[in-house]
Design a protein that fits this description.
This protein has seven helices and four strands, in the order H-H-H-E-E-E-H-H-H-H-E. Helix 5 packs antiparallel against helix 7. The protein is α+β, with helices and mostly antiparallel strands. Strands 1, 2, 3 and 4 form a four-stranded antiparallel beta sheet that branches.
Length: 189
């Protein structure tokens, strides 16, 4: 038997005896160091990604507004022109008309405003009873020719706007009609 083993064991057990050097396993400290490094990198990447996403959503350009004229974009030029130049507004009392193509039981109630070339033009048209009566008559003529089935669709409303702009512009007023704005639109069957 080898006596060095029991002597080493007894020396380790004695309080005054020097204990042999026990080094921690080198793999344990390396694992802790690698785990901390990987965790730090992952957290750093997440913080940068979050900051990048926040910056993108904050600084991205606004999407273009959909055209009021439907999928084909009808009437888009009229709305675009109204936004780039100041315009005046001519208001009307609500219209109530029987719609065409029915048994006389189908009605349209609509309140609308016309966008015209300038504030001065709008003021002149609003104050002139003759001009306002002509425009109201032209609008009623267009509204009375519409059918309920057409007006309940988005395309039907876009076509109505276009027809109203054409009809009122044909009156040879001293101003151009840029757009028609509906504030109330009810079709009753």
């Amino acid at each position: 038997m080898d006596e060095s083993k029991p002597a080493a064991a007894t020396a380790a057990q004695k309080p005054g005896a020097a204990a042999p050097d026990k080094k921690p396993a080198p793999n344990a400290s390396k694992k802790k160091g690698k785990f901390g490094l990987i965790l730090g990198i992952v957290i750093g990447v997440l913080v940068l990604a979050g900051g990048g996403a926040a910056a993108y959503w904050k600084l991205r350009p606004a999407p273009p507004a959909p055209a009021a004229g439907g999928a084909a974009g009808e009437g888009h030029g009229v709305a675009e022109a109204a936004e780039t130049h100041p315009a005046g507004v001519v208001s009307f009392e609500p219209f109530l008309v029987n719609l065409a193509g029915g048994s006389g039981q189908t009605y349209l109630r609509v309140t609308l405003k016309l966008l015209v070339g300038s504030e001065e033009d709008a003021k002149l048209l609003q104050e002139s009873e003759v001009a306002k009566a002509r425009m109201r008559s032209a609008i009623l003529e267009v509204l009375a020719t519409q059918s309920a089935d057409t007006l309940v669709t988005v395309e039907g409303k876009a076509q109505l706007k276009k027809a109203l702009v054409e009809q009122v512009s044909a009156l040879k007023q001293k101003t151009e009609v840029r757009d028609v704005l509906f504030s109330d639109f009810v079709v009753q069957f």
